[in-house]
Fold this protein.
Amino acid sequence: MPPADSTRRIGRRVAVAGVALSDGGRVDEATPYTLHAQAARRALRDAGIDRSLVDGLASAGLGTLAPVEIAEYLGLRPTWVDSTSVGGSTWEVMASHAADAIAQGRANAVLLVYGSTARADLKARRRTADLSFGTRGPLQFEAPYGHTLIAKYAMAARRHMHEYGTTLEQLAQVAVQARANAATNPDAMYREPVTVDDVLSGPVIADPFTKLHCCIRSDGGCAALLVAEDLVPDLATRPIWILGSGMAVSHTTMSEWEDFTVSPAAASGRAAFAQAGVTPFDIDLAEIYDAFTYMTLVTLEDLGFCAKGEGGSFVENGRLLRDGDLPVNTDGGGLSACHPGMRGLFLLVEAVRQLRGEAGDGRQVRRRDGALPELAVASGTGGWFCSSGTLVLGRG
């Protein structure tokens, strides 16, 4: 195979060539760097691509000079880098940047990698449970009121309930179905079934959210390798193509959020579907950022899977289950599988595995005719609905 920099040309298609998880769940002895390295090695092995061909790196959330420190730790010397950090949507935005760079001939093989020991750090008292974003800039005007990140999501959920009649039982259905999807995922941290009553009777974290309305806290990492179509013939696995992408930002302060019932996914999803030339009704499965149950519900609305205000009824009757009308968060999501911090890259990993048909017995999504899914969407949300990145992925 020729050196990576000799095959660059403009206008190439871009594929996800390899994906992998690091050790996850409860990982008390590893460092975040260890998890980065595990995920990176496994993704390269999954793709069948030698490390020497990686000429791009995207990483955020670790180190003073991310992604320089991660590149050094992994033994890489990339000529294209990205350290965009927009919370949970970081990885969908980075994937969009990487796909553009590869298509424009600025890189051939870009590695996206993430790792966090958020749970272990908390247990060892290396950090506190509350994440502070500081009080500088626009946040100084909200900090005196003391509302937390969770409270901001809770305020938005209450507004949706007030405006559209969405019920706590409907929000609880999101958690129940996420746990059901996690039940057959050996990598999921929590697999025991829960009921709507279990969700509703739990301790209140921020009204209206009880504990099971909120994501779990875990350790873990993952990686995805994006490559130009020139490298596809040499892959060890089936390529999954990036067909469309979109990104959008909304607000920092709650007072500047025009409508608590509309997330920036309304803009990022519209752009991604338009570029891919498909509609939400063509999608076979959706991987959606779910730090809280309301995130899943409102993102489904904003991506166009149902009309605004109809998310509550849409998530009922098992529609989000792996064998439901629209399988959502097929690994169990951040509510049950894992949530080590900026979870957006895990959405991409799960979508790729499902499209390849590699999810395994009891986990694999299939269309009504028994065929493998053809199209998936991965949509990440950052901050308190501050940003969104959406990808449309396909087998063809």
Observations:
- The chain has a mean pLDDT of 94.
- The CA atoms of residues 351 and 376 lie 6 Å apart.
- The first strand starts at residue 14 and ends at 21.
- The two ends are 24 Å apart (CA to CA).
